[in-house]
Each structure stands twice: as structure tokens, then as C-alpha cells.
Specification:
heterodimer, A: 276 residues, mainly alpha, globular, B: 310 residues, alpha/beta, six-stranded mixed beta sheet, four-stranded antiparallel beta sheet, 29% strand, elongated
């Protein structure tokens, strides 16, 4: 096992706070789900809980979880390297025979391991929806895979900034800013481009592919696409691009992950570069 | 064996280390002495593959620090002047982590860790969390950490700094034991008499330049041509006026709030006796006249002062 990963897991899961955090997260999620079920049931004229409502509840939980991933991941990963530097443990770590890649990957995986545990621990709560129908196991798997993937994307940004920026606080703020841009920034840009596309559609039948290239970066739009096939139909209609938006999202961010980690690995021992 | 050829480091216009040439034989204990900012830590960081030199290179047991950094790390145990520890790890877990980082198999680590803890007198603390250890214990634990992969060369940047006298003595004893084990040790310290006691060779760094190098006795001999004479007197001005006339005397300083002076005297015992005789004949009100013993600290101060003046 990667020594850094092993050590970090030991440190993280030794603390009681970790498990208290999981407890409160699961309690909050359970309360949220019970409240949603109550609202949906009381608002239904028949008093029954319909599969469509179960689906709606699942979507709500999925977006809640995505929000959680986007909110927590920068905090967990934005200081993985810089905090070692601030604690004066990095120099010792760099004099060991571990490669920069091993250190960076160990740091990334250990920092997101807590979130993975949170998500896995919430699976039984999500499984409640199977009692009422409306969601297939494939969709459940897709949503969880998507959460893990988003975590890796934001996590790799966190590792990158914490390698390049010396101060943990600055690195975290930068990672949060990028996460915010990915969620809100690309959504706003997509919306603006969508409006422009709408105006164009009235004037001429011309397609606006730029909407596609903005929307494909947004995890919210891609998550919505998992639930509602109409989302990608609409995007195809506006942009004229038939390539599935989720595939473009995965490919682009896979490249981003590789690039971020490569830069991190190259810059971990930046002082060893000639001319530094 | 460590071989350093023209190693230098510049940060913009500031020169942290002027081209350094040095050869340290296997099993030798080499002491780097210098004030803060003299270039000791810079040299050590370069040798520990943490910092790229501006020019020159160095080899550690034949491995080049620039071309074969991984090989150098295998040969080298490094203890920086300031270091952090993972407070939530136990002492044995701390060593286990670094052992794993050097690729030592788990079964081997299990045998090795108790031996290392024994070496640094921390066997009784193996199950204690690192944050519960005293500073001296943390220093010793860090030393054990630097030995985990059994390196041939140890680089210890001020290992005794911040320690109380007892902890310093303990650290010194451990270092003597490491010397007996045949390790090549590069050590820096501000505690000069301690270095004198345990180093085979001393190098004095000042403003990034190696200004003196040799055995402790050889360096001390450098100053023996100039004795330090201390004179207590009732009339400092008159005494200074008398000694200033003597061409063998330089660098007169007033000590003890105007009651004593100190100067450098070039000459043997006969010239010294003649000087005192003349002073008494001329009724200079001398209370005491004594030659100061020059220790390594005096040598260091003198050599670095000369560099500063020049």
C-alpha cells in the first residue's frame, strides 16, 4: 500500500471527529429524506407515494450530495501539500525514496477517502427509493460514479493548487473559487449563451455550439442529463452537436485530472529544478 | 565519501553559497560551523537533494546529487534544523511510515524499529504519541528516522539546537555511537566546543564562503601566531596609549566597562615578557596581565571577523 495513503488513513480515521462527522451527515440525510417523503405524501391528493415522486426525491438527494462533494472536496484537498510544507514535514518526506507521483497520488486518495466513506455510508439511505420505484439500479450506480468522478476532478485541482501555492489558506480559496466557477460560472455562461441561442433561433435556424462547450463543464447539467434524457435532446437541438454531453464531460475532466496531477508531480520537487 | 565540486547557490543577486570544494572521507565526522545565514543549511539542502545548486555538483558515495537523486536519497539520512512531526502518530508508527517510504519490507521494519528506538533511548516511548514527547525526544526520534534505511552518510543540521543541557549530552552520546558505527557524518552547530569534541574535521563557513578547514588543532594553530592578551588596569587611556605604540599589537578593545582591555599580540613568550617589563618600567597601572586561551569559539570569531573586515 502507498505509505502516504496508509499514514493519512491512519491519522484521519484515528480521530473520533471523523465518525461523529459521518453520524451527523447520515442523520441530516435521513432527516432530509423523511421530510421530503412527508411533504410529497401530504401534497399528494391520493395520499400515496408515487414512483415519480420517489424519483424526484432521489434527484433531490443526488443534487444535495453533489453540492456536498463540491463544498467539502476543496477543504479536504486544498491543503494536502501546502500543509505538509507549513508543518515542516514536507522536506523530510521529499528526502525519502518515494517518487513524487506516489506522494501526490497518496495525498489525493487519502484526502478524498473520507468523502468516499460518506457517500458509501449514505447508500442504505438512498436505497430507500427502491421501496417505491422510479429509479433503476443503473441510475443509482451512475449517480454514485458521477459523485466519485466529480470528487476526483475537484480533488486534483486541490492537489495542484496546494502544490503550486505555498499558503494553505490561499490554496483552499483558489480551489473553492475553481469549484464555484465550475458549478455557478459555467451555468451562468451556459444560460447567457442559451439566451443568445434562443434569439438566434428566432432570427435564423442557426445552431450555437458554444453552449455545448460551456455546458459540458458543468456537473449539475451532466447530473440532470443522467436523470432526464430531454436535457441532452435540448442541448443537441440548440448546439447541433450530437456527441453525448456526459461523454464530453468525462473525457475533458479526465484530461484535466491527468494534467493537474502531472503538473503537481513535476512541481512537488520544484526547488530541485535548475534555475529555481 | 562525499565529494563537492564548485557547489554554489544564488538567489537572484544574493549569493547564499560561494563555489565550495570539499572532500569528506568515509567514516569522517565533519563539522560545519557558521553564523545564521552562513550557508550551512543551504549546503545541506543541496546535498539532501532538496535544492538545486546554481553551479557545481556533488557526489555521495559516487551518486551524483543532480543526475541520481534517488540513489543519493538511499545513501543519505537527513535531519533538518527545523522539522515537524506527525503528532497523531505513535513513535513506532512514525518510524514505520518512514521505513515504508524507503521501501523497507514490513517484516524488516518490525525488527528494525525497536533497535532504532533502543539506539536513541526511546524504547520506553514506542507506544506514545509523538506530540507527548519532549523536544529532546522528538529530536532523537527524528535522528532515528534518518537512520531507518541504514544510510552511509548522515546530514544533521544543528541537531542539538534548542535542547536543554541534559538532552544535548544525550544527543552527543548518540552521535558518538554513530561515529563508532562508521557513519560519515556532516553536522552543523552553534555549540562549537561540542563540535570540537566530536568532529574529525571542521569547516568554517562565513557569508557563504568556506573560510577555514582542517582538524580542530590545525585551525586553532592558525591563531597561535597571534595571542589574545587581556590586561586589567586602573587607567585604560594611559594603558591603551602605551600598547598602541607597540607594532606587535593590533585590535585593542576595551572590556568590562572601561576597566580592562584585550588585544592581539604577535610574538613569542620572550617578546611577551619584554612587553610586560617595559609596561611596568613605564609605570603603567596594570593590575593583571594574562594570555587568554584560544578555543574553537575564539578561532571562529576571529576568522569570521577577518572576513567581515576584508
Amino acid at each position: 500500500m502507498n505509505p502516504v495513503l496508509n499514514k493519512e488513513l491512519k491519522l484521519r480515521f484515528r480521530s473520533g471527529k471523523t465518525f461523529v462527522g459521518i453520524l451527523f451527515y447520515l442523520l441530516a440525510l435521513t432527516l432530509l429524506m423523511v421530510a421530503l417523503m412527508y411533504v410529497l405524501r401530504t401534497s399528494s391528493p391520493s395520499g400515496f407515494f408515487k414512483p415519480q415522486e420517489s424519483r424526484l426525491m432521489f434527484m433531490f438527494l443526488a443534487f444535495f450530495q453533489l453540492g456536498l462533494v463540491l463544498f467539502i472536496t476543496p477543504g479536504l484537498t486544498g491543503g494536502v501539500i501546502s500543509s505538509e510544507r507549513e508543518r515542516q514535514t514536507l522536506s523530510i518526506l521529499l528526502t525519502t525514496t518515494q517518487s513524487s507521483f506516489t506522494i501526490v497520488i497518496g495525498k489525493l486518495l487519502s484526502s478524498i477517502s473520507y468523502l468516499v466513506l460518506l457517500i458509501l455510508a449514505s447508500l442504505p439511505i438512498y436505497s430507500f427509493v427502491f421501496l417505491f420505484g422510479g429509479i433503476s439500479p443503473t441510475q443509482l450506480a451512475q449517480v454514485f460514479f458521477f459523485s466519485l468522478f466529480t470528487m476526483l476532478v475537484i480533488g486534483s485541482f486541490g492537489v495542484l493548487f496546494s502544490t503550486l501555492i505555498r499558503k494553505t489558506i490561499v490554496s483552499m480559496v483558489t480551489t473553492y473559487s475553481v469549484a464555484l466557477f465550475i458549478v455557478a460560472g459555467t451555468a451562468v455562461i451556459s444560460l447567457i449563451l442559451f439566451q443568445i441561442a434562443d434569439i438566434y433561433a428566432v432570427a435564423t435556424p442557426k445552431k450555437v455550439p458554444s453552449v455545448y462547450f460551456s455546458a459540458m463543464f458543468n456537473p449539475g447539467i451532466v447530473l440532470a442529463d443522467i436523470f432526464e434524457p430531454t436535457v441532452s435532446e435540448q442541448i443537441k437541438e440548440i448546439t447541433g452537436i450530437k456527441f453525448p454531453i456526459w461523454a464530453a464531460h468525462l473525457i475533458t475532466y479526465c484530461m484535466v485530472i491527468v494534467l493537474s496531477l502531472t503538473i503537481s508531480v513535476r512541481n512537488l520537487r520544484a526547488n530541485m529544478k535548475k534555475g529555481s | 565519501m562525499i565529494e563537492i565540486k564548485g557547489l554554489s547557490k544564488k538567489y537572484g543577486k544574493f549569493t547564499a553559497l560561494q563555489p565550495l570544494d570539499l572532500q569528506i572521507d568515509a567514516g569522517c565526522v565533519f563539522g560545519f560551523v557558521g553564523q545564521n545565514g552562513a550557508g550551512k543549511s543551504t549546503t545541506f539542502s543541496i546535498l539532501a537533494t532538496l535544492l538545486a545548486p546554481t553551479s557545481g555538483t556533488a557526489t555521495i558515495n559516487g551518486a551524483d546529487i543532480i543526475k541520481q537523486p534517488k540513489e543519493v536519497r538511499k545513501q543519505l539520512g537527513y535531519m533538518p534544523d527545523f522539522f515537524g512531526v506527525y503528532d497523531q502518530l505513535k513513535a513506532e508508527e512514525y518510524l514505520d511510515f518512514y521505513g515504508a517510504s524507503y521501501g523497507i519490507p514490513a517484516a524488516q521494519r518490525e525488527k528494525l524499529i525497536p533497535q532504532l528506538l533502543e539506539l536513541v533511548n526511546l524504547s520506553h516511548k514506542r507506544k506514545d504519541y509523538v506530540d507527548l514527547l519532549s523536544r529532546g525526544m522528538k529530536q532523537r526520534l527524528c535522528l532515528a528516522r534518518s537512520l531507518i534505511h541504514d544510510p552511509a552518510v548522515l546530514i544533521l543540521d544543528e541537531p542539538a539546537s534548542g535542547l536543554d543541557p541534559r538532552a544535548r549530552i544525550e544527543m552527543r552520546e548518540i552521535l558518538k555511537e554513530l561515529k563508532n558505527m562508521g557513519k560519515t557524518i556532516l553536522i552543523s552547530s552553534h555549540i562549537l566546543p561540542e563540535l570540537a569534541g566530536m568532529c574529525d574535521v571542521i569547516g568554517i563557513l562565513d557569508q557563504g564562503k568556506l573560510v577555514a578547514q582542517g582538524t580542530v588543532s590545525a585551525i586553532q594553530q592558525q591563531l597561535q601566531s597571534e595571542k589574545i592578551i587581556s590586561v586589567k588596569t586602573f587607567d585604560v587611556q594611559k594603558t591603551i596609549a602605551f600598547f598602541e605604540e607597540n607594532p606587535r599589537i593590533t585590535k585593542i578593545e576595551v572590556l568590562e566597562e572601561g576597566k580592562a582591555i584585550q588585544f592581539l599580540f604577535k610574538g613569542g613568550d620572550e617578546e611577551q615578557q619584554a612587553l610586560l617589563k617595559t609596561a611596568i618600567q613605564k609605570e603603567i597601572p596594570i593590575i593583571s596581565f594574562s594570555e587568554m586561551e584560544s578555543n574553537l569559539e575564539d578561532v571562529f570569531m576571529e576568522i569570521t571577523k577577518e572576513v567581515e573586515f576584508s
